[in-house]
What does this fold into?
Amino acid sequence: MLNLSTAVFRQLLSWPMLLSGALWLALAYNLSFDEHLGAASLGAFLSYIVLALSALILRFGYVLQQRRQQGWLRQDSLRGTTARAVISETVAAMFALLLLVVCSQLIVLALSPRLNVQSESHHIVMSRVESDNSWSFAWDDNIPAGSKLCLTFDFENSPKGVFESYIAVKELSAPVIAGEIFYWPLSADNVLDRTITLEAPAEHNISLIRPIARLVIERPPISALPRLLLNQLLFFFTVIALCLFIFRRLKVNGNLASMGALAISSLTNIKGSYLFPDVGALVASGLRFERTALTTSNIALFTWLAIGAILIYFSCKNPVANKK
Amino acid sequence: MTTPPALILENVRLAWQGADAPLISIKAQVGDKLLVLGSNGCGKTTLAETICGYLQAANGTVGRSSRLGYVAQQPKLPVTISVESYFGQLVSLCADSVVNDAQQCMNLFGLTPYAKRKIGDLSRGWQQRINLAQAWLGDPRLIILDEPQTALDPDGMTSLRNVIADSNACVLIFSPPQTGCETLVDTHINYSELC
It folds into this structure.
């Protein structure tokens, strides 16, 4: 089977493809971390890597179609060893993705770029006035644990001499000082609930300056890159499986199968969709990636991988004969 | 203990045929060599593909040995790789217990001198020899040849005749009349006699 996997891998990553990949990595590095060009953000770098991985999936679909034209599918079903072909195709595709991920990790490791010095990023949070002295905040994403609310309170209407108050949620409380930014660390429960209601003593009559209420999320350090890249690899495992399933069981053209697999897997980013486990954060990228990066639950991840394994199992079955 | 037949078709109606079409029945043992002659469009390739499992029969039973070799009328070959590499990959696709030497298969049709050449660089005749040689890989019990004479020179036809004569498998050849395939085996039947 090593022979088969190697053959598919070589078909997948020919020399021009390898060269293009290397050029793309160099470009991605420069566009992400260069002092003048880039945002010096891991998120920007990850978005270029996701693009390259998606391109590899498209290439995989092209190779599958090429192999169909070369008669390999007929050979598989004739010799009754379809599982070998499917597994070797999966192994070859995963190995190609792994190679890209490892190279992107190595390039960052070797050149150790300077990240944006600002260690935290501020995101707009939806706030609502519940009463004169209580406010609720809500957000859509699975934000990382350790995030904080960053708030500013107005003491203008407070009784004379009141420059200090406190904010409470149930039995927890924290002091608020006039003129100082207030941070409320979110508990694991708050993060899960995606909402929190804060309350101040009514007699202090302080008010929240809502337009500048922010959610503060710490940016993942450069040491988190291997885990972020591994997440991308795990996400694309099921995309490969989906592509193989569409190609082999539904007998769709390989190019269309890869496009379909990418389109279907992108549905994981739709909020509130129960079609797929919530794994969109595995491929979190862009300048605001820290908002969702590393927030995928283990259950969602294992469900996603199990879907991939089931799809590969069904792809391994000998295809049903055509009806002419 | 009796050996199971290499091929058994009972009252098979091909997928594209109407309900009033005649039913096809064949029974062939390992070692039988048979040439089925039929004019263009009579259903030879459809029958060959039905036996191989690529097409579903409309009704009837298709039973065949699981160790099968097939020479398609229109070969689909990976033109970008070498002959040697192609056979190497095919060996990986065969069940471990029945793998025979790829080199031996290549020798049957004189492909060894071309082992390092890319398939796409070879002439149509040599590509047909590759198409023939792959059918003998994996020690098949049943070999279906669909118009195997296509693009073969007299030397190639002689090789094919000798390989068929030496083979222990059941060999079923489909061809139009008067193409030279009559010289390959002794038993000839018309397609219409299968019904």
The longest strand of chain A covers residues 126-131. Chain A touches chain B at residues 1, 3-4, 7, 11, 67, 69-72, 74-81, 84-85, 88, 318, 320-324 (CB under 8 Å). The first helix of chain A runs from residue 2 to 12.
